[in-house]
Amino acid sequence: MRASAARVWYVVIGVGLVVSLLIALLARGEGDTRGQAPVEPPIKGPTATVAAAGGPTGASAMPKQPNVVLVMADDMRVDDLAFAPNLRKLIAEHGVSFENSFAPFPLCCPSRASFLTGQYAHNHKVWWHDPPYGYGAFDDSRTIATSLKDAGYRTGFIGKYLNRYGLARSKVTGEPSARYVPNGWDDWRAAVEPPGESEIHGNTYDYMDTPFNVNGTIDNNYRGVYQTDVIGDMSVDMSRRFARGKKPFFMYVNYIAPHHGQPNPPDEPTYVEDEDGHEVHVVTPAVPDWVRGRFDDRIERASGVARTGEEIELDVSDKPRELQKRIQPLGEEAKDALRFATRRRAEAVYVMDRNIARLVAELQRSGAWEDTVFAFTSDNGMIIGEHGLGMTKVRAQEPSLRVPLLVTGPGLRAKEQKRYDPISTVDLTATILDLADAAASHTPDGQSRVTSLLEGDQGWSTPVVTEAVFTSRGKDPAFTDLRGTIGIRTSRYSYTRYKSGETELYDLVEDSREDTNVADDPAYAEVRAALDALWPRIKDCAGTECSVELPKELTATPATNRDNTVAYWTAITAAYGWD
Q1: What values do phi and psi take at 256, rounded to 5?
Q2: Looking at the 3D structure of the chain, how many domains does it have?
Q3: 451 vs 356: which has the higher pLDDT
Q4: pLDDT digits (tens, 9 = 90+) for 506-560
Q5: What CATH code is carried by the domain that includes residue 25?
Q6: Residue 346: phi, psi to the nearest 5?
Q7: With contact defined as beta carbons under 8 Å apart, do 424 and 566 qualify?
Q8: DSSP string across 448-479
Q9: Is 73 part of any domain?
Q10: Which residues pair with residue 105 across a beta bridge?
Q11: Is 491 inside a domain boundary?
């Protein structure tokens, strides 16, 4: 554990050149463009502003145990920050931007379990969201909450927990979970998926009727109230009460946005076909009427459809067979539906962004902001048209793995900075515990990135392990559990082995869009051999085994890693970026 004077954290994962473009747009008045949307309701609470920074900076300004507020979105892509002007203005413009942030298992339930435990999914064993997995498979007797409470923190939870919370029985008690409050939480306000025979109405994914377990009692009074606003109200109230106390506090605020959810609008695409007549999966979040149409003029295509509107990747014969089966010739009907989904998601993000601004404003009003590390991230990304995969996640493609990560804190609000070192979901857990001088609840698979935050980039010298289930079938004896794909992400390369015995390897500098699989290209034989040799060492790793030193040909100095990352985002912006 590092010295308390070194406790500084302010991270923003952004989109390289895209973030700069977005900030420029905001400065020109992008935030006032309403399209066809009706007049918006006012943001409740005081206006969120960031005072001019002055005085101590860095480690000298960080309290021994700062308050920590983490806000997590659901299924939010990095480029969705384009539709979050308050996050950009209040957080991204006043801190450190980590340009490489990843969800190693890009699916809601496994990813959230990884944050709570600091472990990869192959160690906590929450493989999926449906039975026999989901909340019922999660042992939450010890989590980041128990760690922080033991360290003297007051802890609060709001919003989405794990899929099937309320519906499944608690693994800890064996009893129904709808009224169950996990260990470690002083104030618990979790959305509930009620069992079928329950008298509770609504559910976690009903944006207009969400029941909450409030410290063991069901609060079912939100029929007709937009869920994002309810979570915003709860976050403001909790921060106000926590700020009155003497203890440092940890708030974990979880929005469902922009995850899909009810009620479905009449114009939502219900059945969409590709050019071959096969169904394309398209889902959208519900949004209030006042925000509908806000981004219609700006969003003329889906997030993962090229600026030209044409297919970028025409030849998919180099892809593993398991992936080829999922690739579809989208056609105009599917592209229109994905554009619709992109617009609704942007609107959901925008409403969430306004509520986050309310929380920041309350932290400032109470005076707690001065001692608060504030972070924003997502549980996973989302593919929306890339590679002809329709709308999906789980896959080890970049739009699915990459997540935004925005953080600000005492002494770090004077200017925007960037970091290019990697940070993953399990690293985030380790970093928060480091800030709080708290002991991990489990042997941590991640590592604290505080040194990168305080002292600058250290380079990319350890692997990010990627994994997923139901992504491949086969009989590769190296795959000993449910996983279908297991991969390694380095500064330059994305490497994934399939249970079928096939392999993907992409050079993300030369081929940022992952169009050409070079696993069998002789020019990459040395790189492939190094990754093949590393893979058995980390596929089942635990603790420090997960942070083994990369071989020389896979490491990157700070300067090289920065160049690699800039090259990646430059190419992605050229292909898909928003104007």
Answers
A1: -80, -30
A2: 1
A3: 356
A4: 999 999 999 999 999 999 999 999 999 999 999 999 999 999 999 999 999 999 9
A5: 3.40.720.10
A6: -60, -40
A7: no
A8: --HHHHHH----B-SPEEEEEESS-----TT-
A9: yes
A10: none
A11: no
Residue 431 in any domain: the answer is yes
DSSP per-residue codes, 311-373: -S----TTS-HHHHTT----HHHHHHHHHHHHHHHHHHHHHHHHHHHHHHHHHHHHTGGGGEE
User: Tokens in use for 207?
Assistant: 């944006």
Q: Which two tokens stand for residue 133?
A: 């997995």
CA angle 357, 382, 236 (to 5 degrees): 20
Residue pair 520/532 in contact (Cβ under 8 Å)? The answer is: no
Looking only at the bridges linking them, the beta strands covering 154-159 and 187-191 are parallel
Strand, helix or coil for residue 386: helix
- Any residues with CB less than 8 A from the CB of 393 and at least 6 apart, and which? 75, 106, 107, 380, 381, 382, 383, 400
282 inside domain: no
Residue 209 class from Cβ within 10 Å (0-12 exposed, 13-18 middle, 19+ buried)? middle
Cα–Cα distance between 195 and 480 in angstroms, integer? 33
The phi and psi torsions of 387 (rounded to 5 degrees) equal 60, 15
Domain region containing 200: 4-264+332-461+557-576
The SS3 assignment for 30 reads: helix
Q: What is the pLDDT of residue 22?
A: 38
Q: What is the pTM of this model?
A: 0.91
What digits encode the pLDDT tens for the residues 315-335? 889 999 989 988 989 999 999
